[in-house]
């Protein structure tokens, strides 16, 4: 028998270890689609190690906020990741926060990152922060509408309850679920600064958002930010997997073998999602920044439609 | 309990009169008067907060004083609802008074502030205690007039006089509509005590106009759109501790008036009234924050955020009305608790933010964010406290703003099966508007904090700022701590609100204190739960782990150098993002419809040495549609009536005669 505490600890370690691997996988897939060989999937680990061993070059007017933000951003993202049932629902602290709280934790991380981008007082930091909050001002409500529709279907905002409901035969196929999934994919792309909203591979380009905010970071600070970004991608994919594809999730108490199967299923889901994301990013062009609101507004409307549909159909 | 509670505002009035007398006679040194007055006010406010907290669970107590109208006296009552709002007002008042001990020293015209400040506080408290229409309206006007005097304290600035003028008009309007509302409530019996109104139970036909009048009267004081016009003018004009009181407390007193009339005096309202409140609340929340995003005056930005938060509170109240109309008391209790929780939260963090803005004003003499920047280096403590306030109002966990918005979301999710179609559409639409408002608020406070406190100083005043005095800093830190504590132990606040919802709705939320680890579970554990304490502990411990691991295993080297900025750093601080440019993407996304905003770029032809120009245009549609036509109509009518001033005596006599005939005719036809 494996105690819930061990499950929680195992999950926190697993997400931390798997996050750079996922980023490496996406990069590898993108390279393969471009018929390049690409760096090894382990390259993000090497990057982190390299960044950790380098000295920090800090701007003269960097404040305490700039220096503490990377750690806080990492911590907030990690706590959010710890609350999501990745391979098992029996997390000991899953009742600490529901899906709304998880999204709010990611929002807090973004709040700090945008502030850190403005701290040095360069125009790149400002442009990144300004665009980031513009994108977030639509992505966050879209996400909340998705959560509302899911909560109405499952009767709960707790992720573990939602996952258990989705595993049960009552879930079935619903129009609202399809709308939510579509909106979720759009929001997840925007939240993680992926193409078509932002390009994680560019530098020195006026269209960049996330990379512009973190431009002044170096050394171990940058390592923390990079790790947090990888972790956030993993959080989004895990949330989607937990809600829409909860197969293989361990519910209740089970033996070690069952947990191994759960972890295997989770890693498989991550691999599939990473591959799909890489292929998708290679098949689409980046949008102009002022076309992004149309895309996200569409996601918001889909989420609202899904919620309205549930409100309207419940009495019928 | 009511006698000592009532004594405090009366003493405050006396202090105000004493202050006025001391200035009139120049009897004593002003340096001694200031701390004495603010100190005494702080003590009395704190006393009220403590007394209110103690009487929250107690049975209502009433008293009739031989004041006011002859033979009937002035009735006062202290019940759970009054007690909660007294607690909020006492807390805000105590904070503002302590803050003012330091802040007020920089006041250039103390004789225009000191006499009115205690009277304003007394007005706030007395409104909350009043138990008949006359006393209520008298105290309401006392509060309005005293605050008006504080708004025009610096009357040499034409902007302030204008703000005072608009404020006075709107205050008169709100008093007038409330008078009519109470008139309708007292009905044919003419009983103007609240007890008589409670017993009267007006018919459904009367409920609609009463609701409308209460919305107009309380809404215009609270800042409900489109009646908010005075608020962003008046709040920045007043001295900062008064701004904090007006935004943090006075708007809450208006919310109290609405709750008192709708939930207590009127009784159950039909379901469609909830749709009106929900629609107004949702629109106010989103429009308020959009207006805030367009501002570059720090205090005006905060004032528009008050409008937004009033919208959020009214969303909660609308939900409570919807649930109550459908006989779903438990849901109504949850929604009302969420709204009142937000009342408390907003009073705390908005006071904190106005204190911060006041500190910036003291340190630099600037309210315009475009002239600030880099204050985090010079004003370390103020900037930290302001950051906590920004995070709290942006509804970020583990602070208090998140909890009340989370509770509101839980209330929205509670009952999708209400039978009325209007509610089926209004409630999820309000969910979307609330989510939008929360996200935009975060954007706005990134802007407010980033431009004011971060980056490089844009002017010499910002570069040479010094942190403010200990009283101000202490108050700000205490309020920041309250933000964190209320976020970590939300169960305590929810349980504090239980007597209020029991008194108004005969239902309450489940008891929260005593649950393991201070979790809050609004409905059932399987539905939703939140634990601010553990979230805070997790964030703290994960940060600790990260910091420890990094400092144990990674490089320690730090080298200071010039900013990188992609290799092309510009030494001029004007090249930073300003408040206006920061909001430009959002203005472009939302502003085209809301503000009719557009930009034109004038690019000189090649070879021309003139600089390129960007011009932006935007309109305040609410002002143009709701206020400007009224102003024009009044001016035109006055112009037309002006002719009557210059008539001969014969004409005047003819008018009097005609009027008499008309009245007699009307009387004859009436019979």
Topology, please?
The complex is a heterodimer of chains A (316) and B (671).
Chain A (H helix, E strand, L loop, with lengths): L3 H30 L9 H11 L2 E4 L4 H19 L16 H21 L3 H32 L4 H9 L7 H17 L18 H4 L5 H26 L11 H27 L9 H22 L3
Helix pairs in contact in A: 1-3, 1-9, 1-10, 2-9, 3-4, 3-9, 4-5, 5-7, 5-11, 6-9, 7-9, 7-11, 9-10
Chain B lengths: L1 H24 L4 H25 L6 E5 L8 E5 L1 H24 L12 H14 L3 H19 L6 H29 L7 H7 L3 H19 L8 H7 L2 H26 L5 H23 L4 H28 L3 H36 L10 H4 L1 H14 L6 H15 L6 H33 L6 H4 L6 H19 L1 H16 L26 H22 L4 E4 L17 H16 L3 E5 L10 E5 L3 H22 L6 H22 L1
Antiparallel strand pairs in B: 1-2, 4-5
Helix pairs in contact in B: 1-2, 1-4, 2-3, 3-4, 3-10, 3-13, 3-19, 4-5, 4-10, 5-6, 6-8, 6-9, 8-10, 9-10, 9-12, 10-12, 10-13, 11-12, 11-17, 12-13, 12-16, 12-17, 13-15, 13-16, 13-19, 13-20, 15-17, 15-19, 16-17, 16-19
* Terminal-residue CA separation of chain A: 46 Å
Largest sheet entry of chain B: 2 strands, antiparallel
Secondary structure tally: strands of chain B: 5
N-to-C SSE string of chain A, H for helix and E for strand: HHEHHHHHHHHH
Q: Largest interface, with Cβ-Cβ < 8 Å?
A: A-B, 89 and 90 residues
Instruction: Give the count of helical stretches of chain A.
Output: 11
The run of helices and strands of chain B is HHEEHHHHHHHHHHHHHHHHHHHEHEEHH
Q: What is the gyration radius of chain A calculated from CA atoms?
A: 19 Å
Task: Calculate the mean pLDDT score of chain B and round it.
Answer: 88
Helical amount of chain A = 55-70%
Count the helices of chain B. How many? Answer: 24
Query: How large a portion of the residues of chain A is in β-strands, by DSSP E?
Result: under 5%
- Whole-angstrom Rg of chain B: 26 Å
